[in-house]
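Tutorial sheet, problem 5. The two components below are modelled jointly, 1046 residues in total.
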Amino acid sequence: MAGESTGPNTGDITAQIEQARQAIQQFQESGKMMLAGLEEWIKAVESESGKKPETLSEEEINRMLDEVSKINVDRYGNGFSKETWQRLQDLAEKDSEEFLKVCAELLQGAQSSGVEAGYQHAQKEIAQLLDGKSAEEFLAEQQEVIDRLKADAAMEEGSIVAQIQDLPQQDRGEAEKQLRTKNLDKIEAELAEAQRKYNLIANLQKGNNVELVLPKASDEVVGSAKNSEQESPMAYNIELPKLDPLSASYNTEKQARRSRAEKFVMDSKGIMSANFGEEILRRLNELEELEKQEVEKSRDDFESSTSGGSDDDIRKTAEEAGKSSFRTRPTRTEEQAKREYREGLSKWAREVTPGRLDPEVAKIYAEEQAKKEYDENLAKWAEEESKNPNKNRFGDPELPPEEKERLVGKIFGALRGRKPLKRRAFKATMGLALALTLFGARANTIVAQGDGDVTSVTSVSTTLEDFGAEAPGTGDIVKIFEDAGVAGDSAVELAESLGMSAEDLYGGEIDYSQHDLLAEGTALYEGIADRESSFVTSSGMIMDMAKYNDKARHGNHFAASIVDLRDDKEALINALMENNIELPYQLAATTAAMPELLRACGVDESIITNENVAERAQAVMDAMLADGGGDLQKKLAAALNIAIRNENTDIKVYQEYGLERTFYVKPFEAQNVDKSGDIQLATDVKQRDGDWQIQITVVYKDEAQDKITREVVDLSGLCGGQVNLYAESYVVRKVITDEAGKEHEDVGVVTFVTTEHNDGTTEQEVIYTDLNTGKPDGEQPEGEKTPEEGEGEDQETIKAKNAANLVAGMDHGLHGEGVNNPANSTANVVPELKDNGDGTFTYVSNDGTTATVKDGQVVSVADGAGTVEVASGNTDAVGTVTGNPLEVKTEEGKSAEVKTEEGKPAEVKIDESKPAEVKVEEGKTYTQADYDSAL
Amino acid sequence: MPEIKPTQTRIINTFVDKMMADKGLDAMSAEEQAELKKNLRVKVEEQIEQAMLRALSDAQLLELEKLVDDGVSDEELDRFFADSGVDFTKAAEQAMIEFRKAFLASAAGEM
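Model answer (structure tokens):
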């Protein structure tokens, strides 16, 4: 700001004050009206008597004295002495005319003084109101204040009307009066005062067209005189204070001081000597001259110092000159702040003034008001709630229906698609299905038996688990009956209300015989053969190489990752089907895991019965490249499409941990593919570490054989739906229940430890070691991320933690009991150990392989192809040949029993060392690195 | 003869199928019916989820609103619903019954 003229804007201020002075002088004239009243009175007396009154009655004298007594004190302490007062009374008795004249003069002087004081205070008030602002700025701000107050008043009036409208007519007046005293009277008083100030400043701009505005201070001055009737006359003196000549109100104050001094001199005539009055005026002139010199000096100093320097320099100069009230122009920052404040104030004022609003702003205003009201009500409600901590939810005050709907809508919008809400909806729906089916069919029997019938309760509980519901306890079962109210006839009523019965819920199974698979498959392949990236073999097999050549397909993966689609089941299914249609090797591997499907498509029974799934897949692949392979491909695709989209098919997305065998496709070129063997499928073992996978469970019902068959396909999402098998591994999934009652899956290995006590007894302990932390059970660090459980419905079939789960985890290469067996629907069970009598035990796992255990360690694994020796005893026997992991077993409505030899679990020690080398019969040794590099 | 336990998809599909059959939608083409079925399926699932929220007490709704505003995790949500003590099956039942009533009373499928 250096170099910029920032001196006091005295010219502007002076002009404004002068304007104000002129305006007040106009007002001052009005003060004469008071004296006019006195003159009228004198005239009336004269006219009544027809002549000048020679003497005044005592009543008249007292009335005059009373009038004069009201002005015997002013705010500056000047007043009549006792002597003056006595002289006035004497004069009333001796010379009525003179008495009246003196009284008139005194009253005129008092009026003049009061008006002058009012004038002076008006100037002070004007200066205070302007406070550096222009009149226009002040008026703009004041108008906003007035608008706001008007709006407040209108709202308050509206509120009062609303509060009294329901009252009887006769009570409304009093009620309104009381309500007004709360806020409205105060608001209206503020409004009147704001309007007065506005008019006061507005007069500055009206020239001679001023409006009469009583300065507040003036009223107080007059009022103080009226209220000081009993005060005694004070000393006859006057103060001539030195004024600040650079203050905004200097001219006004100077004029007031002069008027006061001149009046004092005039009043003192006849009382004080003539010299006394002259001396007063001389001192006043000197004072004014001194102040004038100060102004000139200040101006000179200012002009000499404004060739340079900052605002602070100028301010400092002024302060050094004793001009404490020296004003500088506001800096830009200050101006900006003020402008922003005014703009904000203006905006705010507009928003709170409904009558002035456009619809949009009015809407915002209404919403704000509604929210404010809601918050207030909520706060009251919360306060009430806090006073009643024991109030149950049924005693809660209710939210207004529209507010509750707003909340539901908001929350639903936020939670739509979120797993917890979907999970809970799933459970609710399944509970409903349970009510319709189980209760509808068995309610009468079970209710009649009561909760003491453990067999019945267990049966219900088992069925609940089958439905994916939380398994309740004995007492809970009966409560479910009671709460659901669906026992007996109620179930029928529920079925009628929903329009569907238990029978309706059953059915919908896959029935390939109802489909023309070739026709449906042909439709699926429509247009694919014509693609530039496609080729058709002589067998008619179609392949689109685009996905195979996609750079996003890593290594020997079947296709690019589809993990991103895991939250959109429909998109996931579509992507899987697209891959299977366009990539024959994927179709072969996928359908090879579904014997019933292969059978429906006319695949040779010898292929279907081959227990080696890898060989089976390769055989299906070769069949597509052999004669009639094109039709087979279309049928397989159609059948898979039917199976995967069947409403009874269960599709889960979950994260896998541990070792797993998986398919891959060996590299090939399109031009070399035309006969069986030209596309080669193979398998390898990979370590999964939280990889997203898809598990598809297809259900078939065979009424002829009175059985239900499930086929499970486990796919790697990362590899575009590559089929997984299970490898030799003792990795288990363990279900844990946290403090909140939520179930998690954890991954680890199980070790049985037998401790011999001194008394000869033994104690067996199952130790679970978390693979993530390497620590025994219960030592998982807080905050350690546990493997996430399966998505959606997946968790519904996870059983609670129990010993059977842990023991079941020892099953040969399986992931957990009845949970993640990709081979078949049979619940994974603890194998029955057979004592070989030579210190070794053997057991047969679900995949048909036989493991031999010695000293708690698996020493070998055998299948139809031979025996693998586990040289190091490591339980992660990488490289073992799995036999037939896709054995299909039928469900017979019974869960497997957990049995161990002689009632004791097998003792198995787990070596925590790295995967061991595996020696195969051919003498060839593979290492983990070999397998890692294989893919 | 053991039965295949119905999946949620099966339940919703059956509900919608029966509802559409009871409504009688002869005037609609197969394509229109397929589209309607798809929409009804989505809608009824939404209604069930909303009904579950409405089944919460006012205080629970306010608490849930705060949780949502604060970016509640899935675990916290699971815990909230599990601890709510609300019979969500009953809420789902009511939602489906009301949905069916509304659909049957509607002009859907009428020419």
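Marking note: Chain A touches chain B through 66 residues (CB under 8 Å). Full credit if you identified this.
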